[in-house]
Model the fold of this input.
Amino acid sequence: MQQASDFLEETNILFELMKNLVGSDFDRVTLFKNWTLNDILVHLHFWNINAHSSLNDPDKFDGMMKQFFSAIQTGKLRPYENSVIKERGHKLLEQWYNLSLKLAENFSVVDPKRRVKWAGPDMSARTCISARQMEVWAHGQAIFDLLEQDRPESDRIKNIVFLGINAFGWSHQVHKLDVPEVMPHLKLKAPSGENWNFGDESKISLIEGSAVEFAQVVTQTRNIADTSLKLNGDVAHVWMQNAQCFAGPPETPPAPDQRKKSI
Done:
């Protein structure tokens, strides 16, 4: 399916950025929660292992999730991820990349509607691999920022835009806010220059601008104030201040001017 190809493209772009780094670079601290490059790769690889197991070995997946939830309850999630993933530096980069290739191949041939297990509710295979792309893209943003590089974007970003749109209700619920009856109309410009329109076409509530910047806001890699997105209406403003397209407890976006390229 196309989403598997998009995940592969996202993976290749991040790998190309990192493959020529020196060993000490992997211990550099990013602007995302002070995570190092090693921390980010451990996290991406850990959840790729779970996605691969969910598709191919549900019993293994169940076992890892049992330990995962135990780690959450004891506040030791990161130590648990680090205990599962032993390698660091270039060896970790290669492990993550090689499994990503296998993951893309596996998901490319399954029924997109097939249900697979996850840490939350079951999801379709299409959503699962789209979420893996989103994680690579979102966490990769911190690495591109640290290395002062611009990421080559393409219309593969549409998968992340869809995740953000589908999380409209969740973004309110997780912050204990009432879910508006109608989502704002979105008028987004794709990297290709194509115009994407979503939601109610009323001008009462409107979000307009770059699809990439919309994706940055819903993945919380940028504060809405650090984008050129134009908002009209209370619903649009509240959503963009609380947007969260990922599971877990409520998270707040970075403060204005906090997430950016290193200087």
Summary: The longest strand covers residues 185-189. The chain has two domains: 2-152, 159-242. The chain has a mean pLDDT of 94. The longest helix spans residues 125-146.
